[in-house]
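PT: before anyone asks, these are the final sequences, not the draft ones from last week. 1348 residues across everything. Please model them as a single complex and drop the result in this thread when it's through.
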Amino acid sequence: MIIVMRPKTPPEEITKMKQKILDLGCEVHESLGVNYHILGLIGNTSSIDPDTLHANDYVEKVIHVQEPFKKVNRLFHPEDTVISVGDRKIGGDTFAVIAGPCSVESETQIVGIAEAVKKSGAAFLRGGAFKPRSSPYSFQGLREDGLELLKIARTKTGLPIVSELMSTEYLERFVEDVDIIQIGARNMQNFELLKEVGKIQKPVILKRGLSSTIEELLLAAEYILAHGNENVIFCERGIRTFENYTRNTLDLTAVPVIKKLSHLPVIVDPSHAAGLWWLVEPMAKAAMVVGADGVMIEVHNDPANAKCDGQQSIKPEKFQALMDSLRQLAVIQNKII
Amino acid sequence: MIIVMRPKTPPEEITKMKQKILDLGCEVHESLGVNYHILGLIGNTSSIDPDTLHANDYVEKVIHVQEPFKKVNRLFHPEDTVISVGDRKIGGDTFAVIAGPCSVESETQIVGIAEAVKKSGAAFLRGGAFKPRSSPYSFQGLREDGLELLKIARTKTGLPIVSELMSTEYLERFVEDVDIIQIGARNMQNFELLKEVGKIQKPVILKRGLSSTIEELLLAAEYILAHGNENVIFCERGIRTFENYTRNTLDLTAVPVIKKLSHLPVIVDPSHAAGLWWLVEPMAKAAMVVGADGVMIEVHNDPANAKCDGQQSIKPEKFQALMDSLRQLAVIQNKII
Amino acid sequence: MIIVMRPKTPPEEITKMKQKILDLGCEVHESLGVNYHILGLIGNTSSIDPDTLHANDYVEKVIHVQEPFKKVNRLFHPEDTVISVGDRKIGGDTFAVIAGPCSVESETQIVGIAEAVKKSGAAFLRGGAFKPRSSPYSFQGLREDGLELLKIARTKTGLPIVSELMSTEYLERFVEDVDIIQIGARNMQNFELLKEVGKIQKPVILKRGLSSTIEELLLAAEYILAHGNENVIFCERGIRTFENYTRNTLDLTAVPVIKKLSHLPVIVDPSHAAGLWWLVEPMAKAAMVVGADGVMIEVHNDPANAKCDGQQSIKPEKFQALMDSLRQLAVIQNKII
Amino acid sequence: MIIVMRPKTPPEEITKMKQKILDLGCEVHESLGVNYHILGLIGNTSSIDPDTLHANDYVEKVIHVQEPFKKVNRLFHPEDTVISVGDRKIGGDTFAVIAGPCSVESETQIVGIAEAVKKSGAAFLRGGAFKPRSSPYSFQGLREDGLELLKIARTKTGLPIVSELMSTEYLERFVEDVDIIQIGARNMQNFELLKEVGKIQKPVILKRGLSSTIEELLLAAEYILAHGNENVIFCERGIRTFENYTRNTLDLTAVPVIKKLSHLPVIVDPSHAAGLWWLVEPMAKAAMVVGADGVMIEVHNDPANAKCDGQQSIKPEKFQALMDSLRQLAVIQNKII
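LR: through. Structure below.
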């Protein structure tokens, strides 16, 4: 960490700040520029809050050098983490395809879609039971009944199931029922929820918040790892920008960036990012070639009558075509799909 | 709601869509443009999900006409809502000043600050007991002990207390202990939490999410009102933009906009928005003149040693000067402070 | 175009507005909702400024139905435009690779790089002669001398040259000297410049502005086409967002979106978007699979001593590897590279 | 400037980098952290391009310490700059009100509005002759004829005139005809234009680009000052964000920030920022209390028939009321209006 003192800071204030750094358990390294006086902190700075130092009136800026995350940091864990879910894997050589409807609507619907996506080669079934919706008047999901239907679909197809957890209240139920717990974009910084999923061993898909930087996403995962659960999969799903033709702006560059900064797997959700079904295929292909470890695709047998997100869901035939494209690319990318 | 069909949509698809609208309980109003065929939905469209209609391949776009929020909508509730907290009010002619430290650190600290801000004219004491922090290694608040210390400060000063609730787990405790429950920016779309605070009658300050549109903020409040609690106060606290000199970009224009769209009170938090103590005073004054119903100000007796957000906290003397400025403006704005 | 009148608009104001629409040469289509009164404009609305209608106090909102651009619109020109530059093409089955240094520095440098990228398979040479730089103290390019050096490189390699025009003052010179004129992101809405390049027949690469919506980009191209030049190639080069790990956020979804809305070719500049050399290869590959018609890549023989943008330039060997990757993908994408 | 070398950089690469710094004319200050090796550059770093250093593969990041702007920097010019236009001033104790229509439409219109705003107390007349419009089919201004009409309005009222220059082609004409040259948001980084207005002595209002950081705005002004013209007035006019209720998001916090960083005056344009006439008054008042040196207000006698921006223009009576409000606030703010 580096502290830049304001021009013309009185020497006694420099001395005080140096003492404060020593009190924080770090060594001080001093450097005098033409206008600025710079103090470097040498030592373990990860638990020092830069805002506290910045509160000093004579401090111009405080600059991070060391990344603020540790357990998710590739620097201290160079090899890729591969997460196992039964006999399937996420990370490493595998390209994991998770597919299914935005929300579970009925047994026929979820079982039908599960069978279709399995046939096309999906490795996991997704389906929302508890749905975060902007409006209280929109369909909120079948909740516990939805979980029951997902379990039926799993029994019939053997596909492990992924579903979103929105509250610690249902954590135990999810640990019991689902194979991968999803934390949605809106809850990426629901720290109480992160701490609790940190105490279990179930794999967690952590979706990037709409306005979260990559660093904040890594820090959110750090909450989970710091509490004991190392099975975290990142999911890029679009960020909020001024462009409004698409629902969000898919930040595909985040994939190679996260893979450089962290050892954890990264998947991409092109359906939510784009918000339009005809954009799902090109963006899923792009996810593959930028190095993602998988994709999460919304598939619905009857999008025009889906209870949510129909406009971004693709039909099973379209999903089959998408899988064919992905398989072609997988050969080039040396990925097993 | 208006549906624009794609150019060259086959007539039978138009017929199908018209039937679908009738099935949704609305009348259809048809209009033929040069290239586009337009269908208007007449009736109660508030429970119709536009995404469902958009899922039809022949639909070019779906346009809202009616605002999607109802109970918070000024259209159906023209007069201002004034919220009572004991003998104090938020909304109407009152300009409510809420002041206190980012986090409660000790009895001496919170009581000292409470006495200081009371003396300068603050009407409410704020203090964080449970703290949402980006890093798991930052100070997380004194939690339940913090609530106890806030209660001591209330007893000593008579100031009602405001504190942030981060999880439904502590809801009962907060209903018991605090006077106004704050829902933080990161939890603005934690819908499970919103539903629960909707079931109580305690006033709620709902902070705008970092990347939330004004419409989403109103819909988040709609969750609370729809579940039965009409005591909601909006708080503008900055949105995330590309500008990084300041912590966030304070969207002051949102104040008159929200007051036009909704009958609920709106306050402003300049401390979190700007993230720099020397910006707090001008932005608090601006909040007053754009018509806000109050401000929330971080005050700390020793910012350079504060456990969080020291760089954006002002000292009690500075707070006194700020109150003096606000009082001058209150005369012009016809507000009681 | 659709006009939504405010709730409770007096009938005489509706009548006035209807007359105004007739005066604008359109027919009116009227529709009465529960709270809102809606007026549809039937006819040629492309020259009607929605802001003018919005200025009426009784107007709640004005909604576009028809896209505001015409000549660039695929609706009126369904087949892809293919642009010829000598014997080379941009658009259609071709994937055009444009490569070269950020700025021309010397004859040895530009000729050396030109030979290297030609050997690897680039179809065009790029090189900045006039450089737009945030700071007046940064290197501003060799200007006219840079153009001379580019011409030498063209003579030696046969590669057509692409260079950025920043002012109408040099237009004649550029028409004479370069094969494709580039309009940079910062000048995307320099309308005087757009009008002038609209009067020539030289192909123009139009880069998306940092904060321009896709619609604004298409409208900027509309300026060029409306003045007579139909040889426009769009270039997605990243938009400005809150994420600051990368220089900008590459909006790859914009590629299939633009190709749906317009018949003109679209290329991608991953170098400027990412701003980091190790991100260029994955993002260039992604550009190919989302359907771009080409890429523009910064290549420098000695990035660490480049006069600008060294951190985002790749070395010739790395460029060779990138071309190999692109060729593999081209087979799958049915593109000629 | 501080260079952070990647963990495990070979010692010989550190040595090379140190030599490079010496070659750039700076001293090196070395500091060894736990994982990172840090090199500080001591000396005049303003002409060193950080990107060049970043291009070295072993460099993790390059951090500015010194602000990259010099002539606009308050550090080297502590007292406020006051700009004179005839007998009027912008900056210091004065609060300058510039008012007038978006575009000049006719002699009656511009003279009528000029007389009205003068009567209410405006100090300058604004009026667009050359208009930057997103669509080529929108009204582009009366151009040279517009300048003639502005001059008639000046003769009749004595108000100095402000108008936007879009191209160097008309620079001489503007120097002759107008009192303050406006550079619009879209041309903030039209560096060729900035250099040219840097060669004259006429005051320049430089509007912040829609996606420009404060630092970029200051650097754009630095172009003008570096070429010899020190009469620059900044204008905050809203930045582009995800919020789309308003045209842009007015960043009022930028006002005290710019005034801290620079000695030049800062005005605010609430009309373009908000894009809705009923937001102009509250935001203009807020501009005053955050310390702006003036405002620029769109006033039109008949907004519903204005040729541009009618929805954000206020009528003369409304402008009178706004001036009354500003005068009340001026007393508190110690400003002369």
